[in-house]
Amino acid sequence: MPEYFQDRSSIFADESVLVEEYTPDELPEREAELTELGAALSPGLGTGRPHDVFLQGKTGQGKTAAARFILDEFEAEAADKDVDLTTIFHTCAGQTSSYQVVCNLVEQQTGENPNGHPKRTVFDHFYDLLNDIGGTIVLVLDEVDAIGQNDLLLYELSRAKDNDHIADDVDVSVIGISNDGNFLAELSPKVKDSFRERRVMFDAYDAEQLRSILERRVEKAFVDDAVDESAIALCAGYAANDQGSARQAIDYLYEAGEIALRQGDTRVTDEHAEQAEAKVDRRSVMRSIEELTLQDHLALVALVVLEAHGETPARTRRVYATYRNVCAEIDANDISLDRVRDHLKELDLLGVTQYTTRTAGSEGGRKYFWELNTDLGATIEVLDSIDRLDGVMHLVR
Ligand SMILES: Nc1ncnc2c1ncn2[C@@H]1O[C@H](COP(=O)(O)OP(=O)(O)O)[C@@H](O)[C@H]1O
Ligand SMILES: [Mg+2]
């Protein structure tokens, strides 16, 4: 009989603690942020309306976890004080307009999606639902940056009461959460106004904080003594040096456990942590490369061609010439040099390319020198898997 199953119990005790959906039961590293949040919500415990709050910080900083945590605490406190409180948690990821978000909110409450009806009707329906629920309502809109800067959802909601959409005896407050640090700053002034006084910033975790977050996970997720202290510190350190993201640190740890298991070891060591970091990073870069647009891919192929031939760092003009060849090979429309430079800069933000600039003598302009920032072999592998690029990848070899 072939072995279909593996026994994971030599390393893992409870893997559910390591997955994205798990909500931790304590967040001591976010004590200050939780205190600010609690203060903003406090008027809702019998003396007024909870304040609108905006949580901001890069991905993996515990914003979602903190919001879920404080809502639970707030519900318990409200029950204690006989306050009629309802909380609604909604994730806006993948929704590109307030219309979509409100349709989904209605569906969340009623089971039916009003998509297709006029915008005003849908909003009115939603406000009716809120009025029916009554009492104090806290509405959390997680990843609200998904709907874009020009959308007035937050403004609408924060003004709903003034506009008589919400009954006098109903209190609705909004907690907006964004992974995009510039989201609030770039919103129109009237939206900013409603959140001006209440913004809670989530800064990147440092290595020490990440280590204690991991320690607590290890205790629940792994068999006793299955993970070396130094391996935990390594996972924390890697993540701190990169984005300071708890998600990233937990991913390293989980992968390190997988690797130890696969290699038949009963302890997770530094070597496993090292291998895990390389593997997880590679996976995340590869995922972001896969999701790029055609023009990004073409610009990237051009740079990869130069890199494969040892011709980087290369000036934009050089990359552009190669890019034109690449386009010609597969009959793709080519765009201007300036726009290709913009695409290369976007790739830099994703960690795929990197550049240095030099000021060009008497002309005073800036020259860009480009190179690949990801592993060449792995990048070629991903590009090879994209059908549209079939006709150009021979240029790389
Ligand atoms: N202080 C913390 N203690 C324990 N786990 C944390 C802490 N901060 C973040 N996490 C965990 O890290 C992961 C990312 O956190 P999350 O709240 O999703 O971040 P964000 O919403 O800012 O992107 C989640 O699995 C979360 O449970
Ligand atoms: Mg989140």
Automatic annotation (TrEMBL):
Tell whether Repressor is among the UniProt keywords.
Answer: no
**Sites where the protein binds ATP:** Y205, R217
Q: Which Pfam families match?
A: AAA_22, Cdc6_lid, WHD_Cdc6
Query: Does the record's keyword annotation contain Cell division?
Result: yes
Kindly state which keywords UniProt assigns to this record, in alphabetical order: ATP-binding, Cell cycle, Cell division, DNA replication, Nucleotide-binding
GO MF annotation terms: ATP binding; ATP hydrolysis activity
Q: Which domain of life is it from?
A: Archaea
Ranges for domain Cdc6 C-terminal: 300-383
SUPFAM superfamilies (alphabetical): P-loop containing nucleoside triphosphate hydrolases, Winged helix' DNA-binding domain
Biological-process GO terms, alphabetical: cell division; DNA replication
What does this gene product do? Involved in regulation of DNA replication.
Q: Which family does it belong to?
A: Belongs to the CDC6/cdc18 family.
Q: Which HAMAP family match?
A: ORC1_type_DNA_replic_protein
Spell out the protein name for this chain. Answer: ORC1-type DNA replication protein
Organism in which the protein naturally occurs: Halalkaliarchaeum desulfuricum
Q: What lineage, starting at the top, does this entry show?
A: Archaea, Methanobacteriati, Methanobacteriota, Stenosarchaea group, Halobacteria
